[in-house]
From TrEMBL:
GO-annotated molecular function: glycosyltransferase activity
Organism superkingdom: Bacteria
Transmembrane portions of the chain: none
Keyword Iron applies: no
Name under which the protein is recorded: Phosphoribosyltransferase domain-containing protein
Length: 196
């Protein structure tokens, strides 16, 4: 952001593993308390995977049987006239396509609903592949939602925090300076020597 010739630094919010785990269980409780009982939980790899695990564990604790899987999305630049926009590719849907049906309920879990493009691409790809077998009730759950960044005609059905901050998740270390690692990742102090 440029203001009077000065670049403004975006404040980073460092999320600890404990905070993310607690928020994942809060998210699961929110879904459960809404009455929604998914037969399938799809965690979007990478960030949504640990949250999906916690959500599935919570439902299992509540004696609600769910099937669960992680799928992956990736960004790439299109060819031809579409070189300017990144396309989202979805990988690993065969299990859901082969096992879920129209009467099933499906919960998509990710760490943050930012632009929303990954979740939107996942829903679109499922629709293309499953057609009439697409579960009629698909909902989205993310601990973090960034409404100002959303670029798709949807939003999460369940979320814990609405934020405009730059979120740094517990597993994220790539791209951080030594100072950021030291100050923002204090929970890693016992293994700080690994990051020199």
């Amino acid at each position: 952001m440029l203001h009077d010739g000065v670049v403004a630094m975006i404040e980073k919010r460092y999320i600890t593993a404990q905070e993310l785990l607690e928020d994942s269980f809060r998210l699961a409780a929110q879904v459960y308390n809404s009455g929604f009982r998914p037969q399938f939980i799809v965690g979007i790899w990478r960030g949504g995977a640990p949250i999906g695990i916690a959500v599935q564990e919570y439902f299992d604790f509540k004696k609600v049987e769910t099937d669960h899987i992680a799928v992956r999305t990736s960004s790439y630049y299109g060819i031809g006239n579409d070189k300017q926009s990144k396309e989202i590719k979805v990988h690993g849907l065969h299990y859901i396509v082969e096992n879920a049906g129209a009467d099933d309920r499906l919960l998509i879990v990710d760490d943050v609903f930012d632009s929303g493009r990954s979740v939107f691409a996942l829903k679109e790809k499922l629709s293309q592949m499953m057609r009439l077998n697409l579960p009629r009730d698909i909902r989205i759950a993310c601990p973090y939602y960034k409404p100002k960044n959303t670029m798709v005609p949807m939003k999460p059905d369940y979320y814990i925090h609405s934020s405009d901050e730059w979120l740094v998740f517990p597993h994220e270390v790539s791209g951080l300076t030594p100072e950021e690692l030291s100050e923002g990742k204090s929970d890693l102090h016992n293994i700080r020597d690994l990051f020199v």
